Structures are given as C-alpha cells and as structure tokens.
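User: Hey, quick favor. My workstation is busy. Could you predict this chain's structure for me?
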Amino acid sequence: MPLTHLRAAGTSLLLDLLEDRLPVVRHWGADLGDLSGEALTDVTTASRTALDGNAQWMANDLPILPLTSLGWSARPAVAVVREDGSGTSPHLSRVTHEVTAEEGPAGSVQVVRSSGTDEADAITLATEIRLEPGGLVRVRASVTDERPSSDAATPFGGHGNLLVTELTPYLPVPDAADELLDMAGHHVYERQLVRSAFTAGTHLRESWEGRPGHDAATWLAAGRTGFGFRTGTVHAVHPAWSGNTRYAALNPMQGRRLLGAGEALLPGEVVLGPGESYETPWIAFSWGEGLDAVSHRSHDYLRSLPAHPSTPRPVILNTWEAVYFNHDLDKLKALADAAARVGIERFVLDDGWFGSRRDDTSGLGDWQVSKEMWPDGLEPIASYVRGLGMEFGLWFEPEMLNLDSELARHHPEWVLSDGGTGTPEHRQQRVLDLNAPGALDYLLEEMSGLVERVGIDYIKWDHNSPAVGVSHMVEPDPRRRGRRGASAVHEQTLALYELMDALRERHPGLEIESCAGGGGRIDMGVLEHTQRVWTSDSIDAHDRQDIQRGTVLLIPPEVMGTHVGTARAHTTLRDLDVSFRAGTAIWGHMGVEWDLTSADDATLDLLASIIALHKEHRDLLHSGRTVHADTAVDDALRIEGVVAADGSEALYELAAIGQTVAWPAAPQPLPGLDPSRSYRIELATPAYPELNRPAGWMAGGVTLPGAYVSTVGIGLPGLHPDHLVLVRATAV
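Assistant: No problem, here it is.
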C-alpha cells in the first residue's frame, strides 16, 4: 500500500503502510499540502534511512510500536511474555492495513486500522490511528493471545497465558525539539509547568496511585528551547486514562526523537487467555505553533464528545468550606438565601449527610441518609433550594469506604488489599473493589435511588485516597474481567467508567464532576463520562492562577471548576481581595465555596456584580479560544483571555501575582485578535481605587487595529501584587 496522507485542520499525518510492520509515521505536524502520485513515492524514498545493510530497516523505518525484532534497542514499546517465559519478541507477518473515513460528532474522522500476527508465538498486535476533524491524532493499540485453547501450545512451543506489562504507541517529533515541558505539583498545588532539556535517553513520567494524580504530567510536550504559548512548534502527548499512566520522551542513539504514552500496568494485572485481548486507552497527540494551539485541538475534541455539557454552566455554591461536616438545616437555608442573592444557580451539599459520617473516620460507603443529621431526609433542603430557583447537587465518594462503616462490616471482601497487612490508609479510608460481586450493583442502586427520590441534578464524585497495593480479595464478578489476587487498578478504572455511564443512562440529565482530593483525576478519559472536573482543593486565587493555567492547556474552561473562596484561604491562609478572588474564578465553570452568611452587604453586592459579569460573558468564555500572552516582563504578570471563534469579541485578564522586576512595563499585547479587524478596547470591570485616576485607554476606551493590539499591545495599569483587571475587546 502506498504512502497514506491524512489531512485535517492544518495537520498532516503521513503514514507508510508496509506489509511487514505496523504503520510507520513519516510526518506528523504542519500541513504539507496536496501530495499525490509520484510526490508520495519520492517522500517515501526521502524518508527512509540512507544507509546500507541492516541499518536501513532499523533507524527511521520503525512503526508506532517499535519492536526489538526490527532492531529497536531503546525502551521497549511492547513488553509481553508467556507464563513459561517464551514469546517475548513478536515478529509480525501478514500485516494488513485498512484506511477509512467515519462520521464523528464534529465531522469526518480519518481512520487507519492495522493488524499483524506473530504466527510462531500466536500473538497479534494491532493499532488504530484516528485523525480528528480538529487535527488531534488519537492512537490505541491492542495485543491478542491467538491460542485456540488453554492447554494448547504455540506453534513455537510456548505454553501458558500471555502476560502484558507494556504497550506504548510512539509518534516522532522534529529533531530540532530539544526542550520538554510537562507538569508537576502536589495536593492543593497541581499542574505547575516544568521545563527540562530533551537530552539523550529516556524522560519518563509515571503515576502509580490508581489515578493520574496531583503530580500528573497532563501534557508531555517537546519543542525548540524557549517555545511559548504563542511561539515555537510544539508536539505533545496525553493518555486519555483515569488509572495508572506512563509518559515517555525518547531520544535514542538511532533514528528519531519520539513521544509516547500509555497505561502503566502492574505485574500480573493483564493476563490474557486464549482469544483474549488487551487494548490500550486512547492516546492523544496534539501539535501546533505554541502551547495555545496544542490546547485548541484537545478543546475541540472534548467539546465534540456526547458527554460534554450542552447547556450554560450554572454558577455553583459548594458547601464544603462553608460548613464542612456541620450540617444544620437552618444554617444551610440561610446559606442558600445568600447564594440566591448573589446569583448562584446550583447548590451542592458536600460530605457529611450519610450514615455515621460526622468526620472523616467513619461511615464512608454507607450511602443512606443519616437520620440523626437529616431526620426528614434531604428533601427539605433540596425543596428549599429549588424554591429559590437553584438546582440541587450532592457529594459522593463511591470508590472508597471507611473500615468503620456498616458496608465494611457486612462486606469485608469488598475492601481491596495487598493480601497481607492491608493497603496504606489516607484519611482513614480504603478502596472499595468495584469488581467484587454485588459491589457495583450496590452503588448503582443506592446512588440512583437518591437521585430519583431527592431530585439530584449533579453529583460531586470524589476519590480522596490513592489506590496503591490493591488486589482483589474475592473472585471478581464474572460479568467483568479480572482474576483472583491480580492487581486491580486496570479493572477498577473500567468499572468506574461503567458506573458513571450507568447512572447517566438511568438519569440522562444528571451531571457528574470528577474530583480526586481536588485535581488528582483530570484527564481526557474521565471527560468522556463526566461534565466537570474539580481543579484543586486550593481555592487560593493566587495559586489558582498557576493551577488553572496548567489545567486549561488540556481541557476547555467550561469543564474546569473555578471557585471563589473566603478572604483568608483555608489551604494557605493567604488573605486576598474579593475582586481578585472572583476575577480569577471567572475563567472556568464558576462557583463559590465560602460561608456567604458571614459576608457584609457591600461584599455580597460586589460578588454579585462579578457573577453577573461572568454570566454576561459565559457564552464567550465557554466556547471561545483560550489564549495566553508570552509576556516580556516576567512571570509575575499574566495576560490571558478567551477569543470568540469568529474573532468578534474577546475578554482578557491582566493579573499581577507578584512584583515585576521593571516598572513601568512596556505595552503588552493582547493575543489572538483578528489582525484584519479593529477592536474597541475598554475595561470590563471598574478599576481598583488604588489605581487612582484611570488614565489612557482605561479612562474611556480606545479603538485600535487588531494587528496593533496583538503585536504592540496596550499600556498596563499600575497593578499591585494579587490584583487584576478585566479587559473587553469588541470588533467594530
């Protein structure tokens, strides 16, 4: 089959579909224009290694699953072995390729499916490559045990089931890419951008806590040193998976630099019997001129998913930092009154409403309304909230339980364990085996019953404890894959998706937020099943500037939970102005997590005005292109915004999170505007009193060419640290 050229939204993907290997990627990146006939033949010739002997098929002609049988000597992309130790190096023959087009939610998707079998070891490897309409490339791979029966030997003579420990697809990146960017962090300080040199060898990032984790890499990106949000060619990879994950950047001593990702599999976690297959999660590959362009491709894809919310995102009040476990109906009614006053549209009751749950030591897993705390059930607060014109939401943590709970006492076999002294506890809780017979059914019936009886519109779905050292203590439900004693994270993740989907199938209007002790489970996989993610347990607006900047590089603002906290942040004890706190929360799915009954009238009025501003611009914020300026001053100044897809309007944030080295600073650009149009530039919020008399463009606005604003820029207000202003740009 000749070279295949896939094109979409400025992306070219050139695939060499050979008879003896899975697809070889000749190019992934900028659109190469119309290539056909002789041009395609010459591209193939030009791409192949111009060396004699075995090197011709070793270096640049490796497929997206590089195999040792093809001379690959860097980190294995495929690691499989039979129980007797055979079958470790697949040699594929009879590789077939199918090129098709399929209709997806956002338009035509170009698809290449390939499959090859190692007849001697009875192993099939397959890949599927999809070029989405927005230019995002998605790849997955699979391995199948082709033995006809459990007692059959392979033609080579090997015996036993097939153990899979790695299956990682890779795509090449330009050789000029000499710098890597990924993310790190911890609980209450997630997704901090980290740069490192793309040096020789392997750059590896993994999560082994049963979820991507608060330190998740999120994107692993490669480009020429100094690439930014708006400049430099960038290529990036992300595994769309909510369990253990692996990212790798390879700079081997032969051939091309590569980016890859996949599921990180624990020993014995995937064991294939005759006819059984393991399929990787989807791996997303994005590229563009600057990090903003990388994020636009993932935003476009996520916005096309059936699970993506299609209605305006209601402003939320979550009760956690307002009352914690102290549930009192009168207090909560007063809080609901204050919420309605400032424009809240959804009221969410957090932890503490069920079983013996008065703190975090007991009751988790007993999803029955506490008669002690709620003698008349949750209906009184739900009805009161709806009477104020708000939706009602409720907190659950379905995958966890306290050992001091009725559930653990009745079903100790449902507690995942290492089989010895037990797994480590976090917040006095353990992990519930969703694949144990009856466990998932119990959760579905209890949660679904409450949704139906109380009229729940929204579930905050938490996951506070890492799942480490977890194995099944009972034979899993035969309706699901899994084996006694096997590590449980892979099957646990699939069961999580199944439970979420089952709830939404029963209650199509129900929305689910993915929370994992804050931002520990934010990935493209969970967003196929949920409508929101909780970005971080830190609502400190100063730290949220960094946290949200990293998060929105992967996901669009409308699914990113952004809340206004109390004046003194509960996690950092930092005191911040309400304008800065609320101005920071505008840039996502806005909410409030604050005891509003303690605020004075002036503060409530100011909060209400900023919530009203958010609603005024909500359609723009939740449909436009996110942009970030590469400011020339230093990282103390942030210029970020959202530009309408048609370029007709934009909203920007000019925020100081520290002291800049030089002041006054030179004019700074507002990125992303249409250079062929003119824009009215004006403040969207009143200037701080500390700014004294608004001067220049802030006094009454200016009309400027888009090319000028996005290139030269505008003068900056004299912002103090942890202050911001919002700027509106409207095409005229």
